[in-house]
Design a protein that fits this description.
By secondary structure, this protein is α/β, with parallel strands linked by helices. The protein has two domains: 191 residues, Alpha-Beta Complex (2-enoyl-CoA Hydratase, Chain A, domain 1); 47 residues, Lyase 2-enoyl-coa Hydratase, Chain  A, domain 2, CATH 1.10.12. The chain is built from eleven helices and ten strands. It has a six-stranded mixed β-sheet with strand order 1-2-3-5-7-10, sandwiched between helices. A four-stranded mixed β-sheet has the order 4-6-8-9. Strand 1 and strand 2 form a beta hairpin. Helix 4 crosses helix 5 and helix 9 runs antiparallel to helix 10. Bound molecules: ligand A1D88. Ligand A1D88 binds next to helix 2. Keywords: Lyase. Homotetramer. Its EC number is 4.2.1.150.
Length: 256
């Protein structure tokens, strides 16, 4: 697969995709198409059990390409929306980790929030400053931020346009870990490598139950969990997990 705005490297069990769209890693159409193509390419590849998305340079992403707002369309593929890509990430059956080596604003933060896990640089800021442009967060920020940090804090971020510091993002539960910028990618890769050794079916069903469960009633969510439990209990991996435990050895999960 050829990507124009992503540097994609294959690691053992996972893939790292670095957005490479200087000067701000703006999420223009070519970037969104590349991420979408990468998700499609990795979906049924058994050897890819996790995806890390990071940025090149000082910013993770400054958001949607403001130049595109003024109608300067780049590229000739049909227009793709951040919603299309971010919903695909959020509902992806494999973990997607945002390795935020720099600040993320607007759509860049919305991309990170659609990922399942987030590692943030201690020098970075994360915000939804769209109100300063006279618009609103338009790729899911009004929905995901309150779900992640609560309505009161989310409203302050969006109504004032003031970004969170890394410390606030960690304290509010927006990110999993904060480390120095130069360690972000390594931390994300360590996490991806750990998840790549996990039981793929169990990970898939956990992602599904949590993601779908948060958007429905507890009763419906429990039904989703029960359906997932049924799938994994019938799997070869469940047998391998029990066997490895009693044989006191690491399990070798095959995703079957
Ligand atoms: C549905 C989703 C909607 C959205 O996402 S709307 C966009 C929301 N994002 C923002 O509002 C952030 C806009 N950018 C900024 O506030 C600043 O930038 C930063 C804080 C990210 C960085 O500031 P600094 O270090 O002073 O750099 P700089 O000179 O402002 O920008 C460097 C170059 O990057 C371009 N750029 C920055 N953000 C975007 C963007 N979102 N879309 C397109 N280009 C962008 C600038 O224009 C400039 O370019 P040149 O060097 O040619 O002057």
């Amino acid at each position: 697969m050829e990507y124009t705005k992503l540097n994609v490297t294959r690691e053992d069990g996972y893939v790292v995709a670095a957005i490479n769209n200087p000067p701000a890693n703006a999420l223009g159409q070519p970037v969104l198409h590349d991420i979408n193509d990468l998700l499609d390419a990795c979906l049924n590849e058994a050897g890819v059990r996790a995806i890390v998305i990071t940025g090149t340079g000082k910013l993770f992403s400054a958001g949607a390409d403001i130049k595109e707002f003024s109608g300067i369309q780049s590229g000739d593929r049909p227009k793709i929306s951040g919603h299309d890509v971010f919903l695909k990430i959020e509902n992806y059956p494999k973990p997607v980790i945002a390795a935020m080596q720099g600040s993320a604003f607007g759509g860049g933060n919305e991309l990170a929030m659609s990922c399942h896990l987030r590692i943030l640089a201690d020098s970075a800021k994360v915000g939804l400053p769209e109100v300063n442009l006279g618009i609103i967060p338009g790729w899911g920020g009004t929905q995901r931020l309150p779900r992640l940090i609560g309505k009161t804090r989310a409203l302050e971020v969006m109504l004032t346009g003031t970004p969170l510091t890394a410390e606030q993002a960690l304290n509010y539960g927006l990110v999993n870990k904060v480390v120095p910028a130069e360690q972000v990618l390594d931390e994300a890769k360590k996490l991806a490598a750990k998840l790549a050794k996990g039981a793929p079916l169990a990970i898939r069903e956990i992602l599904k139950a949590v993601t779908q469960g948060l958007n429905t009633t507890i009763e419906e969510g429990i039904k989703i969990e029960q359906a997932g439990s049924k799938v994994v209990f019938a799997s070869e991996d469940a047998k391998e997990g029990g066997k490895a435990f009693f044989e006191k050895r690491p399990p070798n999960f095959k995703g079957k």
